[in-house]
Fold this protein.
Amino acid sequence: METKKSKPVKTTDHPTPSQTGAFAFGKENYRLMLIGLVFIAAGFLLMIGGGSSDPNQFNPEIFSFRRITLAPILILAGYVIEIFAIMKKPKD
């Protein structure tokens, strides 16, 4: 009786040696991360200012549309872009 030699079965999903030096993200992922960081930085920059040089003088400029609405929206959009950039599968 002859025994058949079967092909080895691949049981694990380890990367091949050529894949071990590859980056975790693709070029598009890094580009989206950079765009998200720009949105976040712009949001924080828009929040700057509005103070008064005299601590006894109230400046209503701190409640402007730019600081109360626009800047937080930009920051949240930046974080959403960052999450999307991390979760997006890179093209092989």
Observations:
- Helices lie at 27-47, 65-87.
- The chain is about 50% helix and 0% strand.
